[in-house]
Every structure is written in C-alpha cells, then in structure tokens.
Amino acid sequence: MTKTGAMIDEWYPVGLFSQLTETGSKTALMSEPIEVTRTPDGNAQVTSGDGRVLPVRVRYGHVWSSLGNPTKELFGIPEADQPGRSFVDVGVVRVRCSPLRAVENFLDIAHFPFVHTDILGAEPHTEVENYNVEIREDEDEVWATQVKFYQPQAAKSAAGGITTEYMYRVPAPTCSVLYKTCPPRPGEWDVITLFVQPLAEDLCDVWPWMALFDDVTPMTDLIHFQQMIFLQDRSILENQIPALLPLDPGMEIPTRADLTSVAYRRWLKRHNFTYGAQLVAQ
C-alpha cells in the first residue's frame, strides 16, 4: 500500500473545464505534481510530473483525475441532468487543512448559528434536532436524512427565515453532496456540492458546485453568496487541532449532533481512506 492508501484509486477534481487552456495549468494531487490542459481537439488531459497520462473524466463542470486506477466510475448526481436548473461553478478556495477535515466541516450542522450567523443559523435557534444517519451498503455511501434547521437566509433566493430540511450524502472520501429545501420550489431540492482536491495531507483546493432552481438571482450573486459562506468556514478549518482528521474514536468526544461525522469517520476507516487522517493519538 502506498502512502496515499486506498484513496489513490479514487476520482478527484483538478480544475474547471471552462478554464482549461492549451498551455495548461500546474497543480498537485496527493503531493504529486500534475498538469491539466485542453488538447487541440478540445478535450481535457491530465499528466503527472513524470509525463504519465492520467485517467480523466469531465463532469459537473469540472475535470476529474486519479493517480491510480479507479475501479468504479465517478459517482452520479441525477440533478445534474435535470432541465431547468442553474448550474453554478463557484470557483476554488485554497484551505490549509486536511481534505477530510474540509468534508467533515461541510457535514456539520451545529456550527451554523456561530459561524454563519444570521445567514444559515442564528441564536437562540442552536439546537440540532434528531436526524437519521446510515451507511448505505448497496451504494457504499454515507447518508444523513431528515435534518432540519432554522435559517434566516437559507439561500440567495430565500426571502426570509425558514426551517430548512437537509439531506447529506458522501459518495467519495473527499466529496459531499447536500440536498436542501428549494425556496422557489418547495417540492424540489437545491443541490450544493463540495468537491475537494487533496493537494497534500494538510492542504486542499475546495471546488463548490451547485445545481439550483433559481431563474431570478444573477449568476454572479449566486457565486458570491456561496463563496462568502465557505470563506467563513475557512478560518475555522485552518485553526483546527489536530490538523489531520482523527479516526481513532477515543481522540475526540462526539455529541448527538455529530452523528454524520461519526459515520463518515467509520466509513473512511473501513475503506482505508486515510490520506489526510490521523490514526492514533500523538
């Protein structure tokens, strides 16, 4: 097993397809230098530092690649093919934290009133109600359902405070998909994703992407709203101790609100997804 463990054979975002050029851009994947380019025929190509051509997929506005040999296809998001949605490439935010920490923070509900005050949460509405968490064996994914939380501004399209319902899905070690109440269409879900590129064990690029029903809000405003939310998270992420995500159950004491995090860590450990993790107390 290499230093990257089982995660070497997973798919990772490495750039926005719309921003590819034939001159290419240099980046990294799991501490290895890579280059992402657009070929003369308009396709995406990713090469390693030693010139090896890596596997490539283009989906959800992003280029995906792997240092290994993925045994399964990139996970599906059915809403990405649903007519009438606005597809929002939010851009990238570099964060000095474990890529696994970035995903876990995205799964955390309890921080809303304290980090995203008067937007995704507000006092005195701080209690996390009971919700369901499971590892779905057929899909091999972590799911949290029936998550409800009061939010002063659940989305850019929201006109006022509402109790928002969430579903969280973890289909890959550094990716999470959030389904939440769609203010303009209560019968539908807004989809907000977090695609994380592990640059190193303690450094990552975070690529949010959204599939929304919102025909009113300008694209620039949608992007700025989501960037604002994640930039509020960045300061928290960059100051977490330990820097890597602890997978030993005895290293941190979870609360009832942390059920999704507990399941995520258990799932990571089961699959030996340990790049960016701390296995034992130091």
UniProtKB/TrEMBL annotation:
GO terms for molecular function: dioxygenase activity. SUPFAM superfamilies: Bet v1-like (SSF55961). Keywords: Dioxygenase, Oxidoreductase. InterPro entries: Cholesterol_7-desaturase, VanA_C_cat. Residues 95-270 form the Vanillate O-demethylase oxygenase-like C-terminal catalytic domain. Transmembrane segments: none annotated. It comes from the Bacteria. This is Phenylpropionate dioxygenase-like ring-hydroxylating dioxygenase large terminal subunit. It comes from Rhizobium paranaense. The lineage of its organism: Bacteria, Pseudomonadati, Pseudomonadota, Alphaproteobacteria, Hyphomicrobiales.
